[in-house]
Amino acid sequence: MRRSYRDVLSVVEFRAMWLAELQSVAGDQLARVALSVLVFNHTGSAALTGLTYALTFVPSLLGGVFLTGLADRFPRRELICWIDALRGCLVVLVAIPGMPFVVLCVLVAFVSLLQPVFKAAQIALLPDVLGEELFPTGMAVRSITVQSAQLAGFAGGGLLIAIFNPYVVLALDALTFFGSAVLIRTRLRPRPVVVRPGSARAPWRESFDLLFANRGTRTLVLMLWLMALVAVYEGMAAPYAAAFGGGSVVVGLILAADPFGSVVGVFLYSKLVPESRRPGLLGPFAVASAVPVALCLLRPGLVVSIVLFVLAGAFGTIVAMETTTALTTRVPEERRGQAIGMGNAGLTTATGISPLLAGILADRTSPTQAVGWFGLIGTVAAVALAVAWMSSSVDAGRAFADDEGEGGL
After folding, report:
1. Which of 32, 49, 91, 224 could form a disulfide with 40 if both were Cys (CB 3.0 to 4.6 A apart)?
2. What is the model's pTM?
3. Residues 287 and 183 in one domain
4. DSSP category for residue 191
């Protein structure tokens, strides 16, 4: 039976989590725009501006590897509230006028460090809130929410900065964190920690083995990370637009292409594709997310490029959503937070690194060629992962059939 968005949103606890994430993600995007403007206005350095933007992503790797185990060791509702409250306090400090640049970088890095812990606890809590039947639809609602909030945050950030100033926008971001903490605290019921068996190994090492020892989960993780590398056009928006003589408006259109495609793609996918057919589409959709980016090697015009980025965003977000959903249901509940955290840490890190590598390549070739080469390499990798995923699915099916046969004797 296919579940509707109404079924999911009728769950009071999920509705609170949904509203909390909606405002937090929008606030984060506002803050990224505000930080970029604030640092560039005060330093006049594009390099320092890029460094500040990178600090909103890269420290997530450390948080994902070493801190997301907290989502399995402490009650997840309380952990979400404390992290949101702490991030709100850190952003309040960032919003103080005259904050030294080095201190600002440290504060931004700490906010980024805590993000994967929040996300790990949040996604690990969703199956408990929604149950197995509603969980896939809940992930679709969440994906649409995140992409819509990002789109609104990017668009609204520039407008709010023009009306007020970056400090006011950063203060609004802090308020979104406090509002999220209040919603989670008042609307979600407490749940005990799932006791896990003791082990001498570090939790992150156990989760690494859990994700990569099995071919199926390993393929899912690599597909998830590949989606960040393929979406390199977001980080290359400014030079890509400049290659065609476009200004800030064109940069905004390129940045909006991915979330717009994501919202439309996930909506149609969740409405039209039955859950039973979704695992089989992972491989083809991963390839479909990379091919449009590879076509940039042909140096299409701006209009065609934006259409290609919309398509890449649609297929890429669907793959990211489905791989995260599959990983969440495949790992044991007592390891769910750490496993999700490590997967998303790799995704966030790839999001930060891919524009850097593409920028180096673009200096030697051109922005369109750099983006296109990333797409071509991504296409080859996606084909390999699609074959691996098909093989792992066939092996899993054979193992299930053998088990059924043995049980019938």
Report:
1. 49
2. 0.80
3. no
4. -
